[in-house]
């Protein structure tokens, strides 16, 4: 059994707010990675569609700012969830599979981030966005490639980067963890 999978980084953001800062940082960096992918594939989404869902005119880097703001909020949610004792215990738990038993917490957090990013893609653009646009009378939903492969890829990239940055920057050693097994 490898001890590496149950250990965490010996450095990083610690204390009561370490997860908060790590989540915000990971969310911002993940949103920038996702934004660059969107900008390369369909720049209208960043420039016009994101401000439009709030009823705003596309002015300068407003879409980028809103997008990174969304990433920061989602990063904080990820940090809150990932540091719950049961989830952290699941991520730290030693497993019988050789490949997984050799992975450290950063890679496991990146995997958790990938799952989180796909969950965000399922919930926000597919379910919440249409309801939001109808409720506030905004526009721009038709400009979103919500069900498109690009949207799924972008959210998966966001979550993976978020999880990796979170795992690399937050000191999880002092956090209680409960193994669900």
TrEMBL record:
Alphabetical UniProt keywords: Membrane, Transmembrane, Transmembrane helix
Name of the protein in question: Histidine kinase
Spans through the membrane: 20-41, 61-82, 110-132, 152-172
């Amino acid at each position: 059994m490898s001890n590496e999978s149950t250990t965490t980084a010996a450095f990083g953001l610690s204390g009561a707010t370490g997860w908060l800062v790590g989540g915000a940082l990971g969310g911002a960096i993940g949103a920038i990675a996702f934004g660059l992918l969107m900008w390369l594939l369909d720049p209208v989404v960043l420039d016009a569609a994101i401000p439009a869902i709030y009823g705003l005119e596309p002015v300068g880097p407003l879409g980028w700012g809103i997008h990174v703001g969304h990433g920061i909020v989602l990063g904080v949610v990820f940090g809150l969830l990932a540091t719950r004792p049961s989830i952290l215990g699941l991520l730290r738990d030693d497993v019988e599979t050789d490949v997984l038993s050799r992975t450290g917490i950063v890679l496991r957090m990146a995997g958790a981030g990938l799952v989180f990013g796909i969950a965000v893609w399922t919930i926000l653009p597919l379910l919440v966005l249409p309801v939001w646009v109808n409720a506030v009378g905004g526009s721009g939903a038709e400009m979103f490639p919500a069900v498109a492969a690009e949207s799924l890829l972008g959210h998966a990239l966001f979550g993976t980067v978020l999880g990796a940055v979170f795992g690399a920057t937050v000191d999880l050693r002092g956090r209680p963890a409960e193994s669900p097994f």
